[in-house]
Amino acid sequence: MPEPDARASVEAIFREERGLLLAALVRRFGDLDLAEEVASDAIEAALVHWPVRGVPPSPGAWLMTTARRKAVDRLRRDRAYAARLALLQVEAERTGPAPAPAPDGGLPDERLQLFFTCAHPALAAEDRAALTLRCLAGLTTPEVARAFLVPTATMAKRIVRAKHRIREARIPFRVPGPDELPARLPGVLQVLYSIFTEGYAAARNDLAEEAVRLARILRRLLPDERETAGLLALMLLTHARNAARVGADGGLLLLEEQDRSRWDRPLIEEGRRLAEEALTGGAPGPYGVQAAIAALHDEAPDVPSTDWPQIVALYDVLLALTPSPVVALNRAAAVAMRDGPAAGLALLDGLAGEPRLRGYHPYAAARADLLRRLGRFPEAAAAYREALDLAETEPERALIRRLLDAVGTSG
What we know:
mainly alpha; Serine Threonine Protein Phosphatase 5, Tetratricopeptide repeat
């Protein structure tokens, strides 16, 4: 057995190479299950040989060679499996020749194919995020299960279901053509953003950071797509506040309670540059507009001096791009900061009949906040209790309980 520190070093290298390796194997053999199995076999071989012989100059190439040999061995032992894969390979070859190896002798970067496969619209929404974390982020099934707060067995079923769907529907491992890309890219971006928001809401820094890492990869793979810049900008500008989101007691803090000197200024500057890029050269996209809103928050020295008129104007643009009661809710909160809580509450009450806002705890929490600011404490307390019943994560529930207690004291 290799020493624990040597094993950790090897595993760190493997996690970095895994997405490249898996994508290349899928391209070669056309089967996600086989690719995952032989990739795991290759890392086990690396854990045996590398601590003794040293890490090879090109770890990815070593892993690919080992995995490919193991795949061939498996196919020789299972002729039926080999015959099925032969058919899949014929279909895969119709999408074009395999890319040449990377100039440095490493693996060609074929992860873009996996991004679009994992986020294919034929898969259930909850399965897309799970498969993306499993295949592209390199998380184990138990790690993905912990990320979404479900039992490992439940997550394993989701991942198996997604793979079966890919196989049965013969979803191709390929990048959509130029005519398809505008329709398919938003689905990929949404998967990454849902992973980020899941981590951010639950104060799961590891999950949020994994989403940022994946967004950086996608940005490198699609450098000319402005909405990939917009998504990465939005994530960075939001994640930059992370260190100040949690108080000394471990509880979440509201924006107005945060010590802005603890915000990550280099991350904010990077996000601002990307936001400008996302908004340059044509009509804005939803992520670019949201990034611009986040940048205005990050640039302000405090909440009162934030450019609320500009934020409301940007929400008007966003509402035109993506008509949604959730966007309307956020716009109402910005109007409340610009024109006062009564104006914002009137807009929120006008959204009361929206089906998507029923059971959505931020709506109840926003109403509670405006009622509190108007001095209507019993109504605010009732709204906070409603939000508490609807909140899905413990950090959010703890924050709402604190606000509810404060309202009770004020009343």
